[in-house]
Amino acid sequence: MLDGISIPTLHAALNGLAERKTAISDDISNVNTPYFHARRVDFEDQLRSAVRNGQDPASVTPSTFYTTDPVGLTENNVDLTAETLLGVDTQLRYELVLRATGDRFSILRSAAKGV
Q1: 106, 62 in Cβ contact below 8 A?
Q2: For a Cys staple, 43 with which of 26, 36, 62, 72, CB 3.0–4.6 Å?
């Protein structure tokens, strides 16, 4: 699935996922803070477009925006269940990309040893 993906692309994906993990952590830690609004981080479409169009993946910067989810009595819109699920999904994606990055470096290391 991730064969042939360049290291800069994997690096950009790790950066985007790390930023998403930070936003999720902030959201969860502020679940009871009045007037706090949850954030989302988007980068996948930009990264996909950059790779498809032959652009430098390192130029992709994640965009962070506030959600428009309904707010509660305290004007806080953090949904702990949704944030937890998003956190698990993001962590699994991060681990997958990290493993793919390690595999790419293993291939390069093997190639360098053979020279």
Answers
A1: no
A2: 62
